[in-house]
Amino acid sequence: QVQLVESGGGLVQPGGSLRLSCAASGNIFSVNTMGWYRQAPGKQRELVAVLSSGGSIKYADSVKGRFTISRDTPKNTMYLQMNSLKPEDTAVYYCVYGSLYLEVIRGRGSWGQGTQVTVSS
Q1: pLDDT tens by residue, 5-57
Q2: Which of 67, 109, 115, 116 has a beta carbon 3.0–4.6 Å from 63's, enabling a disulfide?
Q3: Is the dihedral of CA 113, 57, 59, 107 positive or negative?
């Protein structure tokens, strides 16, 4: 199986930036998809961004132009660069891995433990 460990969360002021990392280990296939979900109290789970090994990328409308997803394939590490952060971005952010793109956008596959991002003055 695949194990995922997120890091990089924390407290940041509105307008600030954070970079989240997701380190994957285990049975990783060369063709795969990884993505970031977030969930805030009282809100629906939201797919923030998704990136396939083939280079296909999608972002939630709420983060377009502010967040960037990327990966370092040799290191099996995925990143989420978050700029111009807003209080509405406050949530637990989860890394997800799947062998297929469709697995990830449907919330299937392997999940990390999550990392808290808090945007507040």
Answers
A1: 999 999 999 999 999 999 999 999 889 999 999 999 999 999 999 999 999 99
A2: 67
A3: negative
DSSP single-letter state for residue 101: H
The number of C-alpha atoms within 13 Å of 30 and in the hemisphere containing its C-beta is: 0
Cα(58)–Cα(27) distance, integer angstroms: 25
Asked if 21 and 71 count as a contact pair (C-beta separation under 8 A), the reply is: no
Contact yes or no for 76/97 (Cβ under 8 A): no
> Does the pLDDT at position 1 exceed 90?
no
Write down the pLDDT at residue 25.
96
